[in-house]
Amino acid sequence: MSQQIVNGLFTGSIYALFAVGYTLVFGILDILNLAHQAVFMIGAFVALELVLHLKLEVFLALALSMLAGGGLGIVLNYAAFKPLRRRPDTYFSGMISSIAMATIFEAIALRLWGARTSRFPLDTFPDHTFHVGNASITLLQLVIIVLSLILMLGLEWMVQRTRLGKAMRAVAENERTARILGIDVERVVTISFMISSALGAVAGVLYALQFNAVSPDLGHAVELKGLAVIILGGLGSIPGAVVGGYLLGLAEVGTIANVGSSYKDAAAFIVLFLILLVRPRGLLGRKAVREA
Question: Less packed terminus of the chain by CB within 10 Å, N or C?
């Protein structure tokens, strides 16, 4: 049982870190950035290139991948979302535009790295295992859990306590009023995309390190899970995305241990369905109060 909890926390950390990037942009713009999974994939490839060819330490490669992800977020905002933001159908058109950008990013990845699966060198991360009772946890899994928690808690602190976070919440509540109050809405939106994509890139690197496999379709493995997490936790809620990620991870691991791996996705989405029957807005979702 304890081993399943450890595995569920590890899996949930990846899902939650990926999902908070989704929910940050959705909470401000009410738009799903479906190119987030492509940023997840490119972040992993950037780290792989830095480790393989530039021989950088893995943590430096992770930091540089985070910066690269932030840059991709800025590109996404200006290429896929900003030109459409004043349209009456901005939510739908923005979502379609993000799908187009995801396709472009995947095509670029295919051109640069091919369709094959690439792998990190075996000595990229120290291979240590710790035993706590009947559970075993590798050093990499421990680092992933701790680093994910630090990033997610840091994001929540920023949103709740800093001037930028207050500006983000003001834009999320009512963009027109935020402009009247002197908030630079475009700057807030750009920074939000940058932070969202940086977190997505980090999640991609951590996922690729754990499974030691990087390919252009890497993001497809977590895309639907990320959407399920933000719906489960409550659309636009960062704490909800964290709770939802861990619940989904624990549900998957519990299903694998007791039923079989072929049922893990079905069980996870059954949990989502049952919770939404009781809480249609998700676990920590709130009734929308913002103006159109």
Answer: C
Q: Which amino acid, one-letter code, is at 113?
A: W
Number of domains in the chain: 1
| pTM passes above 0.85 | yes
Name which of 90, 93, 101 is nearest 35 in CA terms: 101
Which residues does 119 contact at the CB level (< 8 Å), separation at least 6? 212, 213, 214
% of residues, the chain, pLDDT over 70: 97
Q: Which residue has the higher pLDDT, 197 or 253?
A: 197
**Any domain includes 244:** no
Residue type for 183, please?
Answer: I
| DSSP per-residue letters across 11-45 | HHHHHHHHHHHHHHHHHHHS---TTHHHHHHHHHH
pLDDT of res. 193: 95
Is residue 179 a part of any domain in this protein?
yes
Query: From the DSSP assignment, how many helices (H) and strands (E) are in the chain?
Result: 11, 2
Q: Are 155 and 199 in contact (CB under 8 A)?
A: yes
In angstroms, the Cα distances linking 93 to 132, 152, 195 are: 50, 29, 22
List C-alpha distances in Å: 233 to 22, 23, 97, 129: 12, 10, 25, 32
Range of the domain at 156: 2-219
Gap between the Cα atoms of 157 and 162, Å rounded: 7
Sign of CA dihedral 71, 74, 80, 83: negative
Residue 292 belongs to a domain: no
SS3 of 147, please?
helix
Whether residue 274 is contained in a domain is answered as no
Query: What residue ranges in 25-151 does DSSP mark as E strands?
Result: 129-132, 135-138
